[in-house]
Amino acid sequence: MNLLAHFYLSHATPSLIVGSFLGDFVKGKQYEKFDSSIVEGILLHREVDYFTDFHPTFLQSKHRLVEQHRHYAGVIVDIFYDHFLAKNWKDYSKIPLEDFTQQVYRTLHEQQSILPPKAQRVLHYMSQHNWLVHYADLEGINRTLGGMEKRSHYPNQMGLATQDLEAYYQDYQQEFSDFFVDIQRHTRGWLAKR
């Protein structure tokens, strides 16, 4: 799952939002230096990623992209799924997407001092360009994938992946809907056991 889904699955809990964001920047046991409530968010991020990577519906979405995009296929599906979450946000939350994302940005900026430098840079660009809201439209997805292509250390064609999304739009949308029911149920159960 990508950023918006991780934040959504944090249930608007500030410490889980921060931890979920840190999940991409804190490796191994580096999480031990953070407060226990932040650690829970980091572990939630890892649990979401693990569940996603082995879910049959996610793998079905990913399979369509493997031939052209190889090991970037999963990353691209993460972005596609954030698109459908943002586009259909009203089906999942009573809080408007713009309000939710501003709350996320505020929460992260308030904790900026504990973020690693790379995370601080991502937060700056994410909030300045309002990535989370722009995931709702194809142009925003295209910009996101194009930016990822440029930042990658290896040759890839992620910038062209929006064409794949458009070609199989209904399939990806249905797969996201099916998958998201399962990931919500799974994360609720995981958090209840903590």
**How many helices?**
11
Evaluate the radius of gyration.
16 Å
Output the structural class. Answer: mainly alpha
Helix-strand pattern: HHHHHHHHHHH
The largest pleated sheet is described as: none
**Strand element count:** 0
Task: Name some characteristics of this structure.
11 helices, mainly alpha, 194 residues, single chain
Describe this structure in words.
Helices cover 71% and strands 0% of the residues. It has 194 residues and is mainly alpha-helical. The chain has one domain. It starts with a helix and ends with a helix. 38% of the residues are buried.
Can I get a quick summary?
The chain has 194 residues and is mostly helical. The protein is built from 11 helices and no strands. The chain has one domain (3-192).
Spell out the blueprint of helices and strands.
Blueprint: H1 3-8, H2 14-22, H3 36-53, H4 56-69, H5 73-87, H6 97-110, H7 117-128, H8 131-134, H9 138-151, H10 161-167, H11 169-192
